[in-house]
# Entry
Amino acid sequence: MTRRPLRIGNASGFYGDRFGAVREMLTGGPLDVLTGDYLAELTMLILGRDRLKNPDLGYAKTFLRQLEENLALAHERGVRIVANAGGLNPAGLADALRELAAKLGVSVSVAHVEGDDLMPFSEGALTANAYLGGAGITACLRAGADVVVTGRVTDAALVSGSAAWWFDWAPDAYDRLAGAVVAGHVLECGTQATGGNYAFFTRHDVRTPGFPLAEIAEDGTSVVTKHPGTGGAVNVGTVTAQLLYETQGVRYLGPDVTARLDTVRLAPAGPDRVAISGVLGETPPDTLKVGVTRIGGWRNEVVFVLTGLDVDAKADLVKAQLADALSGVATVTWTLARTDHPDPDTEETASALLRLVVRDPSPDRVGRGLTAAAIELALGSYPGFHVTAPPGPAQPYGVFTSSLVPAATVPHVAVLPDATRHPIPPVPIPPVPTPSVPTPPVQAPPAFEAPGSGGGAPEGARGAAPVPGTDPAAATTRAPLGALFGARSGDKGGDANIGVWAESDAAWQWLRATLTADALTTLLPETSGLPVARHELPHLRALNFTVTGILGAGVASGHRFDPQAKALGEWLRARHLDIPTHLLSADPAPEGTRP
# Structure
């Protein structure tokens, strides 16, 4: 007998997301399961520092406060809650939830998933957590848990683990699991699927976008939507943008299944409804990713305001005056942002910002002594000297790295509501059959582009290859890439990804031929010298680029002006190149439609 679709929502995309979203999702319409994603690379560092201060902490305290207001409501409506808010201490959060339930007089059963914490891991590590799959969540729900809290599971596992429980999927139901993983990836960042951070945000009212939910069917297909009457929008464009977010390559590796992103098909399914189908799954790798955070050292910064004329000369003067004070510092970075305008009608638009960032293993070399040296220049430097903030002490910064460990060595355990410890066996990986005859060479799949494949976008550039169905001599117009294409970008440790998509077949063909890896490097000079990989997702009319190393040691180190690469895609959309005029003048297809 086929079971009805699972109706599963999300109420948190990060630690610090909209506090009232749990109540909004519980009261906005029917749900079977409500998830919450609270963990990110930076969050693990924050929780690690919390745990240093108090070993009983290490979990997302916000989640506990949200359930203080909403646990009774969830229980009354029969909604299961699954969240990774346990962070570094899921057992501690589970105990705190039981105390809360007793205080509120709400009879709920609480379970948790553990085993991801691999500390002690390596010298200097503050946290080390393996990315577990959803099988522990499935076991907890099968045992009758009303609330399941986990440590570091993959973000999508909150959804795929719940779906496997709802439909009683076997561990090798790879296509179905892959479909749920893709739905989970769409939901995991909350309102990014409903119009938040959306390239074409001016088309919709996105002042208060509602949180997303998915209706997952037994065959693994799904429909992404939101509660009626909530803000924002769900269309194929918003779902495409989220599918491209923080993914690398066409194979989305996970501990339960490898989802093939190049098989995903999207289609409108009604107002604020997008159907996801066609997702194929493959066996997961036999290793698990481990995220490791460390205290990397100490940092400080000063931002000088340079107003009016001679901005470059003023910047050179400050650098020269501070050269001696900076001589012993491990890392010194100067950045001049030319935010000034000619003939400005306000003082702010007359000003540029010179940012000094310093890092060192010792807090003394980048502490108040250094920032005081900058302030001592106040009456003896460039005209109009001032800074954006008073000098401050050095602050510790974190470093994120990742490695792989054999999945069989990680003790994935579901601690059930009755305190029974239920070990989760590793997913069995079928052996690869040995071919009886030599395998002929296989050409690289079209989803990957060979390095150095031409392009660039100086004025007059028309792309690396002819565009099918177009005249190479057709008229072009110099315009920003974003006039025609959407983009979304994000971080994975020290790497960044940029997803770019088209809304029509003609625009996609031009994008595919024009925006090569070399062209991207030309458009974004800050990527020069870094490895850039390009991946094609034709069913989404999208390209996905991975830029290795652009974020240095990751977000917590404050390596860049945009340390999480959130706006890298918007910078790309702002770059100008020669676009066929007929594409710019054509009416776009109904947003996000697919053939």
Summary: The mean pLDDT is 90. The radius of gyration is 26 Å. The first strand starts at residue 6 and ends at 10. DSSP finds 14 helices and 26 strands in the chain.
